[in-house]
Design goal:
Radius of gyration: 22 Å
CATH architecture of the largest domain: 3-Layer(aba) Sandwich
Structural class: alpha/beta
CATH class of the largest domain: Alpha Beta
CATH superfamily of the largest domain: P-loop containing nucleotide triphosphate hydrolases
Order of helices and strands: HHHEHEEHEEEHEEEHEHEHHEHHEHH
CATH topology of the largest domain: Rossmann fold
Largest sheet: 5 strands, parallel
Helix content: 40-55%
Strand content: 15-25%
Number of domains: 2
Number of helices: 14
Distance between the termini: 26 Å
Number of strands: 13
C-alpha cells in the first residue's frame, strides 16, 4: 500500500513538473503584453495585472476610480496590444438598449427588415462610466456578458470569442448616475479600485504627456487564438484540495463568520459571497499562477486576488456603514482569521 501511495505521489510530482514547463512556455506572451502596456501606462501595475487576470480567466472587470487615472487608456492599450476588435461605448442617461446591441431596420427597397448589429459585437468592449446609463441599458449589457449572446428581433446572435467587457465607473459623482444593483455587479468577476500614482510615477506621466515626441503606442504581440488557447491552459493549472478548502473557507467566512472565530463580523455583514465568488476566486488564483509562469496555485495567489473578487460580493449592514467599516476591512479580517494551508 505504501509503495502504491509513493508511486502515485511521484507520478503527480512528475505531472506537475511537466505542466509547469508547459505553462512556462505558454505564458511568455504575458511579459510581452506587460511591456507593451507599460509603454503608455506609467505605474498602475496592479491594475494591469488585474486586467490580464480577467482576460485569462474569461471574466469581466469593473474598474472604479476618480477621473484621470488612466482607466480608459489602460483598457485601450490592452486591446491595441492584442490583435482583436475593440469598441468603446460612452454610457449616458439617454442611451437605449438598441444603441448597444443593435436593432431591426426597415429596408424600403427590399421591403423587409434587416438587422443592424450594435457596438457590442466586438471582442473587447469598454463600457465607459457604466453607472451613467439607465437600468434597461445596464441589464442589456449584463445579459450579453452572462449569456455571451444577443437577441435582435426573432434571431439570437453569438458574440465573438474572446469576449471581454471592461467597465469603468466614477465613485465621486452621484448626480445623473444609476448605481448598479448588487445582483448586476456580481456578474463582474473582479472589481478593481484604482488609487493615485506615486510622486515619481506622476513626474514620468507629466514628462510623457508634455514631450515633443509622439505618444508611444503598443504593438500587437498576441492574437485572439493565442488568448483562447491560454484561457484553456489556465484551467489546467493544478489546484490542490487544500487550496480548494482554503477558498471555500474564505467564502464561507463571509456568510458565517462565527464559525471561524470571527463572530464580531456577523452584525457587519448583510450577505456574503455566493458560489459564483468561489468559482471566480479559484479561476483568478489559477490565472495569477499562470501570470507568474507557475503550473500550480499557492495560497498567496488566492490572497492576491481575494480583495478584487470579494469586495463587490459582500453586503455591509447599516451598523458597518455607521461605523465607517468597509468591505475591504472585513475581507482583511477574514484573510487574517482563516487558517492558511
Amino acid at each position: 500500500m505504501e509503495n502504491g501511495a509513493s508511486d502515485m505521489s511521484t507520478t503527480q510530482a512528475f505531472d506537475i513538473r511537466a505542466l509547469s514547463e508547459k505553462i512556462e512556455q505558454e505564458s511568455r506572451f504575458v511579459d510581452l503584453l506587460n511591456r507593451e502596456m507599460e509603454k503608455t501606462i506609467v505605474g498602475q501595475r496592479d491594475m494591469i495585472r488585474k486586467l490580464l487576470i480577467g482576460l485569462l480567466s474569461n471574466g469581466h472587470i469593473l474598474l472604479e476610480g476618480v477621473p484621470g487615472l488612466a482607466k480608459t487608456l489602460a483598457i485601450k492599450s490592452l486591446s491595441e496590444a492584442i490583435d482583436v476588435s475593440f469598441n468603446r461605448i460612452q454610457f449616458t442617461p439617454d442611451l437605449l438598449p438598441a444603441d448597444l446591441v443593435g436593432t431591426m431596420i426597415y429596408n424600403q427597397k427590399k421591403e423587409e427588415f434587416t438587422v443592424k448589429q450594435g457596438p457590442i459585437f466586438s471582442n473587447f468592449i469598454l463600457a465607459d462610466e457604466i453607472n451613467r446609463a439607465p437600468a434597461k441599458v445596464q441589464s442589456a449589457l449584463l445579459e450579453a456578458m452572462q449569456e455571451r449572446q444577443v437577441t435582435i428581433g426573432p434571431t439570437t446572435y453569438e458574440l465573438p470569442e474572446p469576449f471581454l467587457v471592461l467597465a469603468t465607473q466614477n465613485p465621486v459623482e452621484q448626480e445623473g448616475t444609476y448605481p448598479l444593483p448588487e445582483a448586476q455587479v456580481d456578474r463582474f468577476m473582479l472589481k478593481v479600485v484604482i488609487g493615485y500614482p506615486q510622486k515619481e510615477e506622476e513626474k514620468k506621466i507629466i514628462r510623457q504627456n508634455i514631450s515633443a515626441t509622439a505618444f508611444p503606442k503598443p504593438s500587437k504581440v498576441v492574437n485572439a487564438a493565442e488568448i483562447t488557447r491560454a484561457r484553456q491552459t489556465v484551467r489546467e493549472v493544478y489546484m490542490d484540495e487544500k487550496i480548494e478548502q482554503y477558498i471555500v473557507d474564505i467564502v464561507f467566512a463571509t456568510r458565517n463568520p462565527e464559525d471561524y472565530r470571527l463572530g464580531h463580523l456577523k452584525q457587519l455583514i448583510n450577505f456574503g459571497g455566493s458560489p459564483r465568488a468561489s468559482i471566480a476566486l479559484a479561476l483568478a488564483a489559477k490565472a495569477n499562477a499562470f501570470i507568474n509562469h507557475r503550473g500550480y496555485v499557492i495560497p498567496e495567489d488566492v490572497r492576491e486576488v481575494c480583495m478584487d473578487v470579494l469586495r463587490h460580493r459582500i453586503g455591509i449592514s447599516y451598523e458597518a456603514e455607521a461605523e465607517n467599516i468597509t468591505q475591504e476591512q472585513i475581507i482583511t479580517e477574514i484573510l487574517n482569521g482563516v487558517e492558511v494551508p
